[in-house]
Specification:
Elements: H1 2-10, H2 14-48, H3 52-80, H4 82-102, H5 106-134, H6 140-144, H7 146-165, H8 170-179, H9 182-191, H10 199-204, H11 208-218, H12 222-235, H13 259-265, H14 269-287, H15 290-304, H16 309-337, H17 339-365, H18 372-391, H19 393-403, H20 410-439, H21 441-462, H22 474-477, H23 487-500
Helix pairs in contact: 2-4, 2-5, 2-7, 2-8, 2-9, 2-15, 3-4, 3-5, 3-20, 4-5, 4-8, 4-9, 5-19, 5-20, 7-8, 7-16, 11-12, 12-23, 14-19, 14-20, 14-21, 15-16, 15-18, 15-20, 16-18, 17-18, 17-21, 18-19, 20-21
């Protein structure tokens, strides 16, 4: 019996994988909105006759409103469920895309971007949480990294859209780039209704029979499903002996009540550490400069010496290809190598690439003649930076933060992480032009390299390895004294230890 569970646990469940893929599709729309704006800004500025400050606002406002969306999504997903929250995100994206595609003037364009930003906040919070809650420990890294892979795929599609629609008439081209994002939103909103709800959310509602039925589908054996259901019941505060066929009574704190008090005002030492880890990894994901590279790569390449508009957009497509390729590689390494080792390797590579980029751009800026070697090395440094970001920090930020919070705190804890993520994203995207004008573009990338050094230290000292752990074990893992944080964790550890060993 034990052997069959162990074998089943190692095998990727196809149904769980399919559900995660569909849920992650919402991230393609967000990625597209991010990537397409990098090239669309060139045409928007020319058509609407706006200045650099207005361009920076329209680029960064998406992330400020994503902050609002992520905080709202935490409570929404606890109230109406993970699945319907994805539907809400799709509808919001649709309205935002329609307004941006219409965009007769700057005000309407900005309004559409703000609405799309709320959808971004919903998408970033819910897709990893849904994937984490439906997957088994052995495949959670792979399935939870799919939203980040889809973001990269969306960014790449945005770059390709820039290149293709950029050949159309000025007034039509950029509006097509932005408006076409509405189409996948419609299909996703309909397709998501065919998916099952998160079994962990169902248990929080006391709907044990439905949760058990879904677990039988997403697990590889009946024994694994029953073990996972018992662990989730204990984590939700439901008695182990409670009949799975009746509507169980769940403690009020499992419904999202008192969550902010437990997360921020009076957290336990383990929860405080979890919150610091989640906020820290989301802060450093963008503080190290990825948004500057993704959003402003045409400007970076122009500063390096590329002048042709077509070549600028083509070089930018290369950024999207690199990002997507290496995140795809990372999805297969996360459950084999582990989160922490990949994270440290990734950040180390980013430090080297950012330092190289800063040096090359400084040389170009201070040279009166064209430096071909510096141009080539600048492009290579951008690609190397994106590659190292994509094998570690990019996907692991979302995998790690979606798996470490206890069940009762997961949705709203994740929403805090996403809020920090969006604030940093907005800060970098809206201040990058001003910063590089103040301290030079080379100096800006030296600054990002310094922040990446701090990030490496934070990851090394504050982030324990979570590979192979169940979601219900995380609170124990983050207990500094190594003791179990309560009877629930003791029971989960005992059961899992018995089955696996």
């Amino acid at each position: 019996m034990e052997m069959s569970f162990e074998e089943g646990k190692e095998k990727l469940n196809k149904y769980a994988c399919a559900c995660s893929i569909v849920a992650s599709m919402i991230s393609i729309i967000f990625g597209y909105d991010t990537g397409v704006m990098s090239g669309a800004m060139i045409f928007i500025k020319e058509d609407l006759k706006i200045n650099d400050v207005q361009i920076a606002v329209v680029a960064g406002i998406l992330n400020l409103f994503a902050l609002v969306g992520s905080l709202a999504a935490g409570r929404t997903s606890d109230q109406i469920g993970r699945r319907y929250t994805i539907v809400v995100a799709s509808i919001i994206f649709l309205f935002g895309a329609i307004l941006m595609g219409y965009g007769p003037n700057y005000a309407v364009l900005l309004t559409g971007r703000c609405i799309a930003g709320i959808g971004v906040g919903f998408a970033l919070m819910i897709a990893p949480v849904y994937s984490a809650e439906i997957s088994s420990p052995s495949s959670r890294g792979f399935l939870t990294s799919l939203p980040e892979l889809c973001i990269s795929l969306g960014i790449l599609l945005g770059y390709v859209s820039n290149y293709c629609f950029g050949k159309l008439a000025l007034k039509v081209g950029w509006r097509m780039m932005l408006g076409i994002a509405g189409l996948p939103s419609i299909f996703l909103a309909l397709g998501i209704l065919k998916m099952p709800e998160s079994p962990r959310w169902l248990v929080m509602q006391g709907r044990l029979a439905e949760a058990k039925e879904i677990l039988f589908q997403v697990c590889n054996s009946k024994e694994e499903a029953e073990i996972r259901l018992l662990d989730i019941k204990l984590a939700a505060g439901i008695e182990e002996s409670c009949n799975d066929d009746v509507l169980a009574k769940v403690p009020t704190n499992s419904h999202g009540k008192g969550v902010w008090k437990e997360l921020i005002i009076r957290p336990t030492p383990a929860v405080r550490w979890i919150l610091i880890a989640a906020i820290g990894i989301h802060f450093f994901e963008h503080a190290t400069g990825i948004e500057a590279v993704v959003l402003y790569s045409p400007r970076i390449f122009k500063k390096a010496g590329i002048t042709s508009k077509d070549k600028l957009l083509l070089a930018t497509v290369g950024v999207g290809v690199t990002k997507t390729t290496f995140i795809l590689v990372a999805t297969f390494w996360l459950d084999r190598i582990g989160r922490k080792r990949l994270l440290l390797t990734s950040t180390g590579g980013m430090i080297v690439a950012l330092t190289g980029l800063g040096f090359c751009l400084t040389m170009v800026e201070h040279s009166k003649e064209e430096l071909v070697w510096a141009l080539g090395l600048s492009i290579a440094s951008v690609y190397v930076f994106v590659a190292f970001f994509s094998i570690g920090l990019g996907p692991i930020t979302w995998v790690y933060s979606s798996e470490i919070f206890p069940l009762r705190l997961r949705a709203q804890g994740m929403s805090i992480g996403v809020a920090v993520n969006r604030v940093m994203n907005a800060t970098v995207s809206m201040t990058f032009i001003s910063i590089y004008k103040a301290i030079t573009i080379g100096g800006t990338f030296f600054m990002f390299a310094g922040i990446a050094v701090l990030a490496w230290g934070f990851f090394y000292f504050f982030l324990p390895e979570t590979k192979g752990r169940t979601l219900e074990e995380m609170e124990t893992l983050f207990s500094r004294n190594g003791k179990k944080s309560g009877n629930v964790d003791i029971e989960i550890q005992r059961r899992n230890g018995y089955v696996q060993h």
